[in-house]
Amino acid sequence: MRLKEKIESRTVRVAVIGLGYVGLPLALEFAKAKIKTLGVDIDKAKVEQISRGVSYIPDVPGGELQQVVSAGYLSATSDFSRLSEIDGVFICVPTPFTKAKAPDIHYITDASAEIAKYLHPEQLIILQSTTYPGTTEEEVLPILERTGLAAGKDFYLAFSPERIDPGNRKYGVKNTPKVVGGLTPRDTELAGAIFSLIIDPQQIYPVSCPRSAEMCKLLENIFRSVNIALVNELMQLADRMGIDIWEVIDAASTKPFGFMPFYPGPGVGGHCIPVDPYYLSWKAREYDFYTKFIELAAEVNQSMPHYTASKVVDVLNQRDKSIKDAKVLILGAAFKRDIDDPRNSPALELLKILDAKGAQVSYHDPYVPEVHLKDTIHHSKPVHPYHRSLDLDEKTLAGMDCVVIAVNHSVFDIPWIVKHSAIIVDAQNATRGIDVSGDRVFKI
Description:
single chain, about 450 residues, alpha/beta, Rossmann fold, eight-stranded mixed β-sheet, 14 helices, 17 strands
């Protein structure tokens, strides 16, 4: 039976390589649609948890995972040879950058090499990992075609950008429109068809080629990066001018057209917004093009933890307290509200900066019980690589010289925190509307 027939008869078998924040939700949706789904990951701990129906990602309900595992629609393995049984393979692996801000796509090429070992006719490969335009055709395609099979003829290849927003309760895999771009119109058609098993076909948007789909993802996130940088810069200016930028944003948001609100903060985190500008700027240099505007926005956002740290230093100085040996508690370690993901978190960068300045820094985050800082050198000064979340109680707050609200988790009782803290640096406007006695709360 050919691939199109298997999709239409819902007998198609799919595999998802990479069972993280992107891959596991995707695998769950296929399994819930009663499509035989195989999760593949080199992390044996993840494989073991999925095999027991235990979810390690907040966006994946444990009950739903347990149900599809028990019903036999979802299984997990670290054995790539199982791909020989599969009709559609989705690559959902990480794409970080190096210290020099160059793309690191070895997870993609490693996955492609494993797929190539078991590639067979009528198999569809869809790359979903965020990357620079050209990756599908310049990196994945040659690896797969070394098998002697021809793309677009013997097997099919496409790119479809992931649009997972961790912690978003409104939009997930099933109700977020899907962009697909294949090597040929047939590749695009089949990629769209397999996604239509879990997504309304009207929500699938085909583009002409993989490069357009790859660029689409970068545009989406760079758009956010640039606008966040704009408001971060305006916030710093407003601070010098004695203007409340949060009030200004609220006022501007009353305009019913031509304005979209973005908000300042201690920096940007996660896998996409801090990474994507550098992926595109790196690729652009191949064409003798320099993305000055995009890189400048990324630099502004990257500087925000330093700006927040300087605010902490200034606030302590006003109280005749040196940053050296000052006790500072950072509230939040995840990269955004109500999730457990600390990747590229500006809160952790802030922790490193203050640690390097000599402060006694600790943190509290109910979603992130411990952190291991990869870069333990900051400005040539060693910082403590391991931290555990402190219990948050009145005694802890009272013992701090300064509390920094870096992430405004909904579980934080902000009025209670304000009441029991000596000084607060609020990087999220979390204290808005709270009556504070004395000069104790400072917004960045």
